[in-house]
């Protein structure tokens, strides 16, 4: 079943690219004047959205307001989300009446990998016959904003709906149906096969939060703009020049899966070094400080498939007391995968010595948990054999033992 046919079925229980039309010169007359009253005011002592981030500092964020117009063409109509380094806003491109997403970075974010990564794969995105290029979110434009505290980079992306992480959180906390997961993972693997074989890019940050539900018609997002007139979103007036808005949410409609956020991507096969991946998603080679390449993305595919299907994460990187540390993470890997091969540990003897003795015996800096095997943790499938065979092809200690994206696309659990 195609992914977004499956999504509609799954949720019953509860055009990419730029326009080709010539730009207009009189489009500012199409800007709308947004309401300045009629909304719920959030109390000053109640933190919301980005204010709840542990390292939040207001001055780092550009004070975007609904109704603002940037570059004399992009009018902000709704807030879509936020993160530690940016806020994202739905905007209408007045030049062609299409909706786009503006990702406004904090002014302290000085180096941006996304623009050079997109420049690197631009030719392949435009010309390759590979199906996976249609599952990569398109970067349309970039520009600078000069704010009260510094200069902010702004990336203009094709508009999209919510992420699969947010869809699960809002609509399916117990996990998506198996057919939906198969469709999502298939489109993710198509995107990764394109990145690995056509563009020579390691994404490094694959997880449901970076898998967006796209749209075949951006005009469907007009609903969010119109809601700002019929029911203005709640907001918090921090100062005369800064307002914190709540993000808008809409019921998902049909669209492609788009892999997004290339902020930590690397160009070339490598091996690369450095700290990558969300904590719970870190592949064994990153935990052991070994050079890494395309297989880190395959490890993430396995964990993504698990997270979409199951209500609980496979690896938490925490011990029974909730403390987060590498030894606890490695102990969970041992429980699920068995002990690491000696050949793998020999690739970084110094790091090995932090957790294993000279003979390869676990130093027990964290206890190996009981009943954390794949079979014990998988809770939703009547026949779990096909799914677990797929997972084991993606989650291996040795990076070279992991299947490629192309090989996983032929796996019986997906292809069958």
TrEMBL record:
Name used for this protein in its record: non-specific serine/threonine protein kinase
UniProt key word RNA-binding: no
Domain Protein kinase as annotated: residue spans: 74-414
Residues bound to ATP: 103
UniProt GO cellular component terms: cytoplasm; nucleus
Entries under SMART domains matching the protein: S_TKc
Molecular function GO labels: ATP binding; protein serine/threonine kinase activity
Catalytic activity field: L-threonyl-[protein] + ATP = O-phospho-L-threonyl-[protein] + ADP + H(+); L-seryl-[protein] + ATP = O-phospho-L-seryl-[protein] + ADP + H(+)
Taxonomic source organism: Aspergillus homomorphus (strain CBS 101889)
